[in-house]
Amino acid sequence: MKILNLYAGIGGNRKLWGNEHEITAVEYNEEIAGIYSCEFPSDTVIVADAHQYLLEHYKEFDFIWSSPPCPSHSSVRKSLANKKRKDGTTFEQNKPIYPEMSLYQEIIFLDNYFDGLFVVENVKPFYKPLITPQKCGRHCLWANFPVKDIKVSDNGHFGTIKEMGKAKGFDLSKYKIKHRKDQILRNCVYPEVGLHILKESSK
Question: 62-110, pLDDT tens digit by residue?
Fold first, then answer.
């Protein structure tokens, strides 16, 4: 298949896909895209706005995976939004913000215009989803094929960089980057989830 992997990060969802497919990955952050390129040298990696790239290139692919930014939908963000630390300071990184509606734009767009298979992945939101998703582990999925739920351990998701790297199959110690490595790893979809969803699409 010709696969489009949007908001690719360092490729957690793609980790176990092998090299039998023709994969194009789109990642906005050049530093993170560089890690993806090193991890998956056979893929085509494009540094660009994934949301715009989808609109302009969706017809070129058989399968599209999209993982739009999730912080504005996260229940963790909402739970910390109005709380204060012991010293009286607020969790500035979790201040209330508007939910990023590109998530729903892409779901509606793909469901109505794309002839191939697609999945849009995101976190379980703090509100009732505007479009009912499927569930797979800790993920919400909007797809045009059924995906069976699987149980995936969260071990390593909130651990040290080394623990998260081991859990998700990446050793970031060899990369000198400015971006926070813990954040990069926390944003990764567990590889077994990515493989499970890809397999489900072929049934």
Answer: 999 999 988 778 877 777 666 666 776 666 667 788 989 999 999 999 9
- Provide the token pair at 135: 């569930």
Q: Which two tokens stand for residue 150?
A: 């699987």
Dmax (CA) for the chain in angstroms is: 54
User: How distant, in Å, are the alpha carbons of 29, 34, 46, 152 from that of 149?
Assistant: 31, 32, 31, 10
Name the fold adopted by 2-201.
Rossmann fold (3.40.50)
Total residue count of the chain as it appears in this document: 203
Boundaries of every domain in the chain: 2-201
User: How far is the C-alpha of 137 from the C-alpha of 191, rounded, in Å?
Assistant: 12
36 neighbors 11 (Cβ within 8 angstroms): yes
- Per-residue DSSP letters for the chain? -EEEEES-TT-TTTTTS-SSSEEEEEES-HHHHHHHHHH-TTSEEEES-HHHHHHHHGGG-SEEEE----GGGBHHHHHHHT-B-TTS-B-GGG------THHHHHHHHHHHH--SEEEEEEEPBSS--SSPPEEETTEEEEESS---------TTTTS-HHHHHHHHT--GGG---SS-HHHHHHTSPPHHHHHHHHHHHT-
pLDDT digits (tens, 9 = 90+) for 155-182: 656 788 998 999 899 999 999 999 999 9
